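Listing S7. Sequence submitted for prediction.
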Amino acid sequence: MNFGGIEQEHTDFDRARFVVLPVPYDLTSTYRSGSRLGPAAILDASAHMELYDEELGRETYTCGIHTLPFLEPDARGPREMIETIRQKTAEVVAAGKIPVALGGEHSISFGCVQALKEKFPALSVLQFDAHADLREAYQGTPYSHASVARRISECCPLVQVGIRSMSVEEAAFLADSPVRSFSADYMLEEKNGCENIARHLKGDVYISVDLDVLDPAFMPATGTPEPGGVGWKDVLRLIRAVSENCRIRGFDVVELSPIPGFIAPDFLAAKMTYRMMGYTLNSLK
């Protein structure tokens, strides 16, 4: 199973620009579990995409996409799992490849960010999410999916978009923190919203897409759906704007919790991943 169902000629690790890391992990999920099944669903759906990108006018896969074996969950706990992800991502980055992590729950993003921060010290992070994920800890661990943005903010400048759910603790933290947080309403209603958000990012950027940023009408297959979300075009419009002014060094797509017999969300996640690969190549020209 490889991303895109592409021929071996374009999957060789040595010549690949992108390395896909599937991470079937959802130990700290707190509402509806199942995101551990997300990577397999995305890979399966990706085999049914047209590999010509109609927006970008090219077949992105010809740059090479290598898919690693599924990363085995570490049963010792979230801290150890994030370290495992950091090590594996660091191997990909050291080989000069662009890492693409497929989740799995959102906590996996911190390991990816840590690895890229080592390579690109001025790294900043763009987080798409319905939830702030800024709790100091949740259910006894600071490495919960509900704390991933807090951990990222401690090592990188963070811009988050699509937010429409947070605790009082998170609201208090945001009031005194350097994190730039933009609501879903801002993305949808502000005339120049994408351009304004993109101005807060420069240089090397990592992008994390929690699929619950999308309205449940578009993306019902998540463990923590929130009404009032953004659409497909809203997300891609902002990523495209960022790609025009920054260098995208890696990204993840997380929190797909597949619904048996309902393939549209899986296909959306796969096509978003592929489109983001195309934007990433444009950003590195």
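Caption to Listing S7: primary sequence and predicted structure tokens for the chain studied. The longest strand covers residues 246-254. The mean pLDDT is 96.
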